[in-house]
Design goal:
There is one protein chain. The protein is mostly beta strands. It has one domain. The chain is 9% helix and 51% strand. It has helices at 143-155, 186-192, 202-205, and strands at residues 11-13, 27-37, 42-53, 57-69, 75-87, 92-101, 104-115, 122-128, 132-136, 140-141, 160-165, 175-183, 209-217, 231-238, 243-249, 253-264. The radius of gyration is 18 Å and the shape is globular.
């Protein structure tokens, strides 16, 4: 699923996921970006997201470039890039993120994480910005496996999913992610399949589609039912892991992602 890198991006579910089969399809998507709210007058930019797959792992390449315009008309160019490698076993993960403003590096995060086994506790080790190690509780998921879990729960009809997630994109991770799942309405499905994305995108647009409302709470939160989330994501996603539309909501502003281009990427021959 679409994770936001422009500003930042579970353990108990209502019912077990049973044997629902989830197949994430490698793809590259390009989204236009716009900003709603905040002290900025406007924002203009785009984000590229690419999901890759090998026999052993998923990879993510993500880059957002956008200009924020202030009330005085001046613009600041933001450029955020993120890449990750995630073992399909769910136990090993590597990440690398760099944020820039007007070609000056403002933040870097780089490191890796390892769990003792699927569903077991582990640790994340950072090389940047500072060398450090932090514990990961049992049940922590990495991003691609979290996406699979959400789709799996949606396929069997579950509507609430709570997990701990580590992505290596923020300094308050791992985060508790509370997901509310609803069927996507016909308007959302039609908008994604109206032909503007071209014939090669058609296989990626088939299948069932849901609306996910994801609330992200810092790991220090004692109770996600009573605390305030750091940010929220509303996205329309299909069973292949393609995000058709997304909004990333912060207290002061919202980023809106509109799907402009979509194409399949090669998959593995295992």
């Amino acid at each position: 699923m679409l994770r936001s890198i422009v500003a930042a991006l579970l353990l108990v579910s209502a019912l077990p996921a049973m044997a629902a089969e989830v197949v994430l399809k490698p793809h590259r998507a390009v989204y236009s970006l716009k900003l709603v709210g905040s002290g900025a007058v406007a924002a203009r930019g785009a984000m590229m997201f690419e999901l890759g797959e090998s026999c052993e792992a998923w990879t993510i390449q993500q880059r957002a470039r956008f200009d924020l315009f202030g009330s005085d008309g001046d613009a600041v160019r933001h450029d955020v890039s993120f890449s990750s490698w995630e073992a399909k076993s769910g136990t090993d993960y590597r990440f690398d993120q760099r944020s820039m403003e007007d070609d000056e590096i403002t933040e870097e995060m780089r490191g890796g994480a390892r769990l003792a086994g699927p569903g077991q506790e582990g640790k994340a080790t950072y090389a940047k910005p500072d060398a450090k190690t932090l514990p990961l509780p049992a049940g922590t998921l990495f991003p691609s496996l979290h996406t699979r879990e959400l789709i799996k729960e949606a396929l069997v009809g579950n509507r609430v999913v709570l997990r701990q997630v580590f992505a290596g994109q923020r300094d308050d991770e791992p985060m508790t992610v509370n997901a509310i799942i609803a069927d996507a309405d016909a308007t959302a499905r039609k908008a994604a399949a109206d032909g503007k994305l071209g014939k090669e995108a058609a296989p990626l647009l088939a299948g069932r589609t849901w609306r996910f409302h994801l609330a992200y709470f810092p790991s220090s939160s004692d109770n996600s039912e009573t605390s305030t989330p750091s940010f929220e994501v509303q996205e329309t996603t299909n069973e292949f892991g393609v995000v058709l539309h997304a909004e990333v909501l912060f207290p002061e502003f919202t980023f809106v992602y509109l799907l402009e281009r979509l194409e399949p990427r090669p998959g593995p021959h295992c």
